[in-house]
Amino acid sequence: MDLRGRRHSSAGEPIKFGLGRTIGPLRGLFYIVKITVTRKSHFNAAHRLYRPDWDEQRNIEVYGKCANANFHGHNYNLLVHVRGEVDAETGYVVDLKWLADLIDRCIVERFDHQNLNLDTTEFRTMVPTAENIAQVIWSLLRPEINSAHELKVTLYETERNYVECEG
Ligand SMILES: [Zn+2]
Known about the structure:
Layout: E1 34-47, H1 56-63, E2 72-85, H2 96-111, E3 114-115, H3 116-119, H4 130-141, E4 150-156, E5 162-165
Parallel strand pairs: 1-3
Antiparallel strand pairs: 1-2, 2-4, 4-5
The structure holds zinc ion.
Zinc ion binds next to strand 2.
């Protein structure tokens, strides 16, 4: 190693470290990997798990306290994962500010502080279980996201209970 910290090969040529380029397409230099970008969001909503086509007893057997007539609420934590290749020019898979605005516009504004059973069209006829809410969220977001990207939705209904929907 010389005084400037440069290493030399036995032939005296500087050994190249790194790629010798800092921008531009990485194809051919690296394996193309997929990266997952995640935005966390949340909304509060009330719901009741109840099927009107079942009698009271069956609803209670299946849904327990969640079938209570007067509804109950959850603080839903939502993670939206977008997976794809990194754009060589921007260095992004997707702009997180854009993703945050999309989630606010399509999901939070629609469901926050709503009674899912009474206030939304989606759950008038569908039981608002975490599974069904995650499916609806995925379906609302999917058309808005580049089809080259994979989409996964993780929905926490409680700190310990969560579901994942990958379409
Ligand atoms: Zn509940």
